[in-house]
């Protein structure tokens, strides 16, 4: 394919300044330009770009030959339209394991050591020690990681390093280092039944949408915590709220939601046993550098007539 001009869409600013990519990619043997999806200027449109690096989807992207998503998830991109238009779509899978893994164990430690309660007390200038039987240590507890791709792998490495036992759920029951037992999705309720932490790290697909429903919550331990760093729609949010209100589970750490930003009217904001973070679990100051590395390698491959990195469709 022809690849002479690469556009960096301003929408990547959700994650890092576009200038980071422009600087990191300036040595490429192609022109790199900043484009603005909301601009009517022809010089800033996708029409002059052979490839585009973007955070968001819009129909004009189908004028390019190649589109790279700066996120791993591509649920916002209509894959059939890309196939029909013969536009290659790639993503940033493989970048987030370290950051997501650290975020997840941060949630685990916060719940176990009651750090979220201490932070809330600090805002109120309230000196309040927890009851003697409230704090606990995570070593020896069990986590169930649903999804064992690069995100799940990052969680497994850090959880086992802190002494947790780990089970996992994925489509094929292939053994995974550090994972005691592999379950397939049809045995999800069994998989979560003995876990103190249930960690969601799956992509959003037709198969995973609302896979965590009322039946799954009923199968979880009453002292279990749900951690979602996948996509909000992987969880039936209404069933989650009911499980939290009824004491069916002990709490939840949620980085993703059905609607983002999380509406002010959501009861999740007011729940003491819930940690809400703004879809920032993968955030790191190295994010732009990591994306640049993937993009640069894909440019090299495409210009050589090879398949790009992380080819989705």
From TrEMBL:
Ranges for domain D-isomer specific 2-hydroxyacid dehydrogenase NAD-binding: 105-281
Keyword NAD: yes
GO molecular function: oxidoreductase activity
CDD domains hit by this protein: 2-Hacid_dh_1
E.C. numbers: 1.1.1.-
Keywords on record: NAD, Oxidoreductase
Cross-referenced InterPro entries: D-isomer_DH_CS (IPR029753), D-isomer_DH_NAD-bd (IPR006140), Dhydh_Halo (IPR054891), NAD(P)-bd_dom_sf (IPR036291)
Pfam families documented for this protein: 2-Hacid_dh_C (PF02826)
Gene3D superfamilies membership: NAD(P)-binding Rossmann-like Domain
PANTHER family found in the cross-reference section: 2-HACID_DH_C DOMAIN-CONTAINING PROTEIN, D-ISOMER SPECIFIC 2-HYDROXYACID DEHYDROGENASE NAD-BINDING DOMAIN-CONTAINING PROTEIN
Protein name: D-2-hydroxyacid dehydrogenase
Species the sequence originates in: Halobellus litoreus
Gene that produces this protein: ddh
